Amino acid sequence: MSSRLVAGPLALIAAGGMVAGPLLESGLPAPPQQWAFIVLTLPLPALGWLLAVRRPELRYGWLLLAAALALGLGTFGVGLSARGDAHALTTALGSLSAVFYGLTWIFVPLLFPDGRLPSRRWRAVAWISGGAIALHAGGNLAFGYNPYHPPSGPLSATQWAGVYASSAGQLTTWVMAVIVFCGLVVRWRRSGRAERGQYAWMVGGMAATAAGAVLLSLFHFAGPRYGVAGLVGILAVVGSLPAAIAVAVVRHRLLDVRVGLRGSRLHLVFDLRPTVDEVLSDLGTALEETPEPVEQLARLAAAVRAGLDLRWAAVTLTDGTRVVSGEQEGRAVLELPVRGGRIECGPRGTGPLTRVDRRLLEALAVPAGLAIQSAGLVTRLVNAQEAERRRIERNIHDGVQQQLVALIAGLELARATGAGPDMLAGLREQARQTLTDLRELAAGIHPSALSQGGLVEAVEERCSRLPVRTTVTSPPSLRARRFTDEVEGAMYFTVSEAVTNALKHAGAATMEVHLTLDGGRLRATVADDGKGFDPRTQARRGLATLADRLDALGGSLTVDSEPGKGTRVNAWVPVDG
């Protein structure tokens, strides 16, 4: 809102001076050349206002407004002079024409396209140019420059100082303009494919401005009413660069300001880039409609690419999974770390990434992190389920299946040979062992004690068969409580995996298991007196998969351990009541 309040009045003042000045100079009815001047100069304040309002964080729109204001006030001063008003205000306003020339010849091309210097090396050029413009305008003011009322009689010392200062400032301005133009050509030659069209129009506008300046200087001393050649020159000086910038905006989407259609109605719409709310809304809808994790990452990358108008965007998980939207060319120009991975951004389709683009990307960090975490969690769970399926298949093939094959072969042999009591007793024992192994295998999938007696009874039954002293404690009220199959299964297998790890890897002599229900959270703690380890340097083995399982239920799993101090596994899931 503040940018509108400032930019609007500045543009109106500039436009008013551009209209009133020529009409004051010639009177009404005005000749065609005056109307041509008005028509060709008015786009400058309009363009400056548009960029200042739509891109207030960039300085380029304000630069164009400053140039337009200098031109409008200078033209108004010339108009007042033509009406016979020769005083200090008229001279001061007329001297602002030097500011307009300096800004358009130097700073408009130098700071193109986003209001920033091409590099730190151009700072000296900017400072020298600023001093030259001030010297030129100040010299004109001291001399009392007035195209309709030149000073009469001998010049005073102040007027001579003004002549020298104005000449020195004008000459320096020309030299700096040549240097800036050469730098612009170099930037045009080195620019990428997307920016080359923008720079080409600016180079053409500068060339036309230079040609107009030559014509204007040749016919300058023919009086304020220049004739055809002088008129062409001044129109080229005041209209070439605004026209070039306008074409770059419309045709090459300069500073992401575009002209197009929105909806079913015909509108002239500027800045079609979606807002943060629009991107978040579209992203949320896309993620809800896409259950597959890889497709969710693809939708996320596409949303970032479309929202910032990037040539490509990529989403990378910590496990190395990477999805790219668009065709990647070169390295990323911006990376944003998010929870579970990072977002990589290629160059924009037009122009560099601005601070507005960075803020939009940062606004996407939270939903993007959640989407990445969800995709990674789903992927790990799917992989864990596949690994578990293969483990069960392998155990059946190598264990129970082979025992059943052997049992069938023994029965066939007993029938063929007329087996005696000893052989039948052996086959009966073999069948019992197969049944025992099959029950243990089924218990590994979902223990019968868990289905029949609940979590506490299943944990006690599991720990009773351990070869080391293991204590299971829980409040009496918890023994009678039942929870959903997902919750009970997740907590049971977490305890089972924790005690198995303690036996296999920690060399524990005693273990303690605590089950509690507190504050809507079902908690399980497994502590052992084993050798411990550094959690930062060693994998948690099967607990990583169980952590994902608990995370999917809204819970969490942590491991506290130090070498020589045992290990404590803490797990919890939210429950009703």
From TrEMBL:
The keyword Protease does not apply. Gene3D superfamilies: 1.20.5.1930, Histidine kinase-like ATPase, C-terminal domain. Keywords: Kinase, Membrane, Transferase, Transmembrane, Transmembrane helix, Two-component regulatory system. Residues 486-577 form the Histidine kinase/HSP90-like ATPase domain. Pfam families: HATPase_c (PF02518), HisKA_3 (PF07730). GO terms for molecular function: phosphorelay sensor kinase activity; protein dimerization activity. The chain crosses the membrane at residues 36-53, 60-82, 88-112, 124-143, 163-187, 199-222, 228-250. It comes from the Bacteria. GO terms for cellular component: membrane. SMART domains: HATPase_c. The keyword Protein biosynthesis does not apply. This is Signal transduction histidine kinase. The lineage of its organism: Bacteria, Bacillati, Actinomycetota, Actinomycetes, Streptosporangiales.
